[in-house]
Amino acid sequence: PWIVVAVQFTYTSLFGAYSTYLFLRTGFIYGPLLAHSFCNFMGLPNFAGVPSHPRARVLTCAYLTGLLGFTAIVSLDAVVRTRLFHSMYWDERRGENGVADG
Fold first, then answer.
1. SS3 for 100?
2. Which of 31, 70, 78, 101 would suit a FRET pair with 86, their CA atoms being 20 to 30 Å apart?
3. What DSSP character marks residue 101?
């Protein structure tokens, strides 16, 4: 069915973008490798089973909290750009307007 292909294409593309971000940000292959292993182990959440779950509201809140938390952490990391990893692929010297500070 086309919906399965669309879902798989979407989450694979999003994960590919996140893995690329991890690699460029850290400069190490360990981050994307660990994230890929974790995602393979956990699998895709069963969103179709949420409405029939006995604690559907709690499960929905948990999904939304996880999604919002993940988005906030990645966004904060992209904006703040702490100098944790010293990646040769991620220029830490860029200023707010994208111009090197010096």
1. strand
2. 70
3. -
- What DSSP assignment string belongs to 81-99? --SSS--TTS-TTB-TTS-
| Whole-angstrom distance, CA of residue 74 vs CA of residue 14 | 13
Rg (CA), the chain: 17
- Report the chain's terminal Cα–Cα distance, integer Å: 54
* Predicted pLDDT of residue 21: 87
77 touches 25 (CB < 8 A): yes
* Partner residues linked to 94 by β-bridges: 100
How crowded is residue 36: how many other Cβ atoms within 10 Å of its Cβ?
Answer: 14
Within 8 A by CB and 6+ apart from 92, the residues are 81, 83, 86
Instruction: Give residue 76's identity as a one-letter amino acid code.
Output: L
The amino acid at residue 44 is L
Q: How many residues does the chain have?
A: 102
